[in-house]
Design brief:
The chain is α+β, with helices and mostly antiparallel strands. The protein is about 30% helix and about 20% strand. It is built from twelve helices and 15 strands.
Length: about 375
């Protein structure tokens, strides 16, 4: 809705803040700077940019000659900012005033101008922090893994990984008809391949080494074996930059090579128990792969020590998840990936991963998972 001249006195009396910006702009004003302010105000809930008015209170109209072709300016802004921006030209006795009205961004969608997400800070503009961006993206439960990865084709997927998934899906579903499906139809039935193209889920789960390196290098999983806490090169390091279905067995076998047996007494008998039990280890790895933030540039790290396994997953906890409620609360960050893993039985059922991990730790009298080093960037 356009601003009227009758509303101008109330606007002049308002406090300048995240939702209101005043500029004198007597002669001219940068269209790029205007675009940045429009994006920033949209990201802060919407507001107004007022030109031709003094910045400090009590404000006075000084008039502006900026943007003589107002509709052209408005069209240029809307070409770069996907919002309906209204412009009002007010003819005040003391000069011409321009009021640009910017709506709030949609839920879960930050607004950028010239490739940068802008926000307000005091009287200036700054890029939105990574923490705030992550919170915005998670507002609507946006599923990054269901989005199309530009440039990727079905030829970038590993046939062996696809067939491994098919085999497990047949075993889980008892549906022999899956064997007759072409690889493309199999992926379409899991919705990782659509008419729009190949999703990030398909790339993460089935991509070949070349495709992962080209389109999503951070999707790799890095394994390190360390004999102690001292920094420096690891005793062994393996980098898995390929689809998850291509390496998950090899990853567990690598961990199991140094999986010492621990001994305990049960009555008159001595029993053996592995330091790292396969089921909770696999479940934790699955959790890292399916719930990490793939917009973050970091990789999943798995560090094996003699008595401890450390798994570092990029991105903090999803919105609403904490160490205290992780057993019963769920907010899948990459729902499409989680659905594929559930279809073939790699996970028991959605949201039950850490419940299983805690039960196994308690059953074997082992320490519970420790999240004390978690922050906004890593779990």
């Amino acid at each position: 809705m356009s601003t009227t001249l009758a509303e101008l006195p109330n606007i002049l009396d308002a406090l300048e803040g995240e939702n209101l910006e005043f500029k004198e702009a007597k002669i001219s004003f940068s269209s790029d700077l205007l675009g940045k302010y429009c994006a920033a105000l949209a990201n802060e809930g919407g507001g107004k940019v007022v030109l031709g008015v003094t910045d400090k209170r009590p404000r006075k109209v000084v008039g502006t000659q900026a943007f003589p072709q107002l509709e052209r300016t408005r069209a240029g802004l809307m070409d770069k900012i996907p919002l309906r921006i209204d412009c009002s030209e007010l003819h005040h006795p003391d000069g011409r005033v321009l009021v640009f009205e910017i709506p709030s961004r949609p839920i879960g969608v930050p607004i950028k101008y010239e490739g940068i997400y802008w926000s307000r800070k005091a009287d200036g503009l700054v890029p939105i922090s990574e923490d705030k961006l992550r919170i915005i993206f998670e507002e609507s439960g946006r599923d990054f893994s269901a989005e199309i990865c530009p440039g990727v084709s079905p030829q970038d997927l590993d046939p062996t990984a696809i067939e491994d998934f098919r085999r497990h899906w047949i075993e889980k579903s008892k549906s022999s008809g899956l064997a007759a499906l072409s690889p493309e139809q199999l992926l379409r039935d899991t919705e990782v391949l659509t008419d729009g193209g190949v999703t990030y889920a398909a790339l993460i789960l089935f991509g070949n080494h070349s495709a992962l390196g080209k389109y999503l290098g951070q999707a790799e999983v890095v394994f390190e074996c360390r004999s102690n806490e001292a920094p420096g090169p690891a005793q062994q390091r393996k980098e898995y930059r390929q689809g998850f279905f291509s390496f998950y067995d090899d990853l567990w076998n690598t961990i199991n090579l140094r999986n010492d047996l621990q001994h305990y007494q049960d009555g008159l008998f001595m029993r053996d128990i592995p330091t790292f039990e396969e089921k909770p280890v696999r479940e934790t790895i699955l959790n890292a792969v399916s719930h990490r933030d793939y917009r973050s540039g970091g990789s999943v790290f798995i560090r094996q020590y003699p008595r401890r396994l450390e798994i570092v997953s990029p991105g903090g906890f999803p919105a609403g998840i904490t160490p205290e409620n992780i057993i019963w609360n769920q907010n899948p960050r990459n729902r499409r990936i989680a659905e594929v893993l559930a279809k073939c039985g790699l996970v028991e059922r959605a949201g039950q991963g850490f419940d299983l991990i805690y039960r196994e730790c308690i059953r074997q009298s082992k320490p519970l998972p420790d999240f004390s080093r978690t922050d906004n960037y890593f779990v």
